[in-house]
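Reagents: none. Just compute today. Methionine aminopeptidase.
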Amino acid sequence: MQRSLFRRVVRRSPCFRPFHSSYSRRSFPANAGDEHAAFGNYSVILPDEPFVWGVSHIKPRHVPPHISRPLYAQKYRLEQESEDIDIQESYEGDGRIQLRTEEEMKLRGSARLASKVREYAKGLVRPGVTTNSIDEAIHRFILAHNAYPSPMLYAGFPRSCCTSVNNVVSHGIPDDRPLEDGDILNIDVTVYLNGYHGDTSQTFLVGEVDEPGRTLVAVTNAALEAGIGVCSPGRPFRDIGRAIHELIQRTPGYSVCTTFAGHGIGKVFHRPPWIYHTLNEEPGTMLPGHCFTIEPCIVQGSNPRVWIFPDGWTASTENCARSAQAEHMVLITESGAEVLTRA
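Predicted 3D structure written out:
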């Protein structure tokens, strides 16, 4: 959920054209012989008309005063124009935690809860359910565990999780569109518990998904595991991007979105080290105590570029191809690496 890593200007794409709001969800036509023909059959998510700019019209859900909130949520004021707010959390040091201490215990606790929320969310996904109702249920579930939903009010984001359907790559805002049989849905959850964030996501199948959609999700999960597989103390962070790049090179028909990256996590939601999922020359070496997310977005076809909806958050593929994402938190230990958000 790195707001700084994508442009906030809405760009016209080949599929972005005037239409009546009642037809804002439509089947994506695939012409034989075109690259798009391999994308499958699904509904394209587009912004409703008339456009509403920003998210100040969406009221965040209530959080009881006894729930501890991150600093950005404490400082946020509803009367401010949310799209003009850019929260920069302060951080220092190299992001490493002290292993075998209360700090590690709290970090593991937030990761365990995030995993629990993700698995709870999985059970909510079915045709006819709205992402808004999923968000509401997730919100209540997180509060019931005395935690705060980290996305809410982060740079003005109005909901408690991100729900990205079909061609939406990331940062989809839960809404009242019923999920359709054949959709794919990424649910990205982050919790703030005992002063630490836990972050994870998965792309779920809604009903009977076509073969291209199922394969996309499988390739995405394989890309995440490829990145995790090279994590160990002493390895350069850039090896993660190389491992994912090499897997996608061996799997024709897909590309990796370069707009979003993984990140260090702990007391701060987003901080270095930055984890890029493509070939890169990012400096730095994994050391015991580093904790970060790996969260590749894999896109159908050869165009991984995105454009942003008028809400300032929702990022769609430029050509309306489907995208999937999967995310885990990885802790580097003295002898290897441990995934903290496994179910």
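Confidence is low (pLDDT under 50) at residues 3-33.
Action item: order primers for follow-up constructs.
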